[in-house]
Amino acid sequence: MASEITVAGGGIFGLACAWELTRRGRKVRLFEADRIGAGASGGHVGALAPHAPENWNDKKQVQLDALVAATDWWAEVGAAGGVDPGYARTGRIQPVAPGAEARMAERIRAARAHWPQWAGMELTERPQAALVPVSPSGLWLVDRLTARISPRRAGAALAAAIRAQGGEIVEGQAAPDAPAIWATGAAGLAPFGGNGVKGQSALLALDMADAPQVFADGIHVIPHADGTVAIGSTTERDVLDRRTDEQLEAVIDKARVLCPALADAPVIDRWAGIRPRARSRAPLVGPWPGRPGHYVANGGFKIGLAMAPAIAAMLADLMLEGRDRIPPGFWPKLRAGG
């Protein structure tokens, strides 16, 4: 392996990999064809939330490990570069649909079996939160594991940490076609299958920084530390334009109904981007088949921000130590004819 490692892509996977290699003492140069966070990592939401704990599998375990380690990982990033990534473990609250109590009880049992004890779920009739969604059943499911991060601040914090540790970031220039870690988002999925999925989100001006995030009827509502609340997002397959439209307005309206505290908060920013969804629906991490010295870190889709620390650590272990901790389902496989 060359003394300098090239990373292609300035989204969350590329930045996390570059940081992990830099903090382990390797010289890194990251190329971003546009600017840091120009793609799917430049949105608003930043929900670091676990998958439902039922039907446990390797992907859920990797995500859980990353969520548990996130507090220390992001604290180190912020300290290294002097930029706050906007991370906080504030928990999550979800309304329970009428008749779903038995299913929620099973979910709570599964969380006890797989999550750390401190992170467990519970049902409550009296949620202690500034931002409480409407619940037709009068019950809410809460957890203490879920965290939030500001995607744009996270990208800026990682870039600052990389540079502070001697790494180089080149914006406005694509990476050369040479051995590298390829973390190029939806555009980089073509050899492996998968597709880009459009998402739209909005940012409201409302200071609820310490409130837990809300997940209700498919909508994420995330209070951030800077006096804003993020709302998202749409899931639009086979749509590649980056314009916001009436689908986002419907999400905003729905969020205001679900959380009446948002009713009068003004919208201060709207965003649309293309998220990379791998064919397997799991992240792609590992060597690029048939291209010695080339590696892939892609397919974060909706969980890229949550998974990035674990993905970066597993790839660094493989590249630097020859230690393979990557679940078999994550290894990149070329699509037929790819």
UniProtKB/TrEMBL annotation:
Residues of the FAD dependent oxidoreductase domain: 5-318
UniProt-listed Pfam families: DAO
InterPro entries: FAD-dep_OxRdtase, FAD/NAD-bd_sf
Name of this protein: Glycine/D-amino acid oxidase-like deaminating enzyme
Organism of origin: Paracoccus versutus
Domain of life: Bacteria
GO MF annotations, alphabetized: oxidoreductase activity
Keywords: Oxidoreductase
A Gene Ontology cellular-component term: cytoplasm
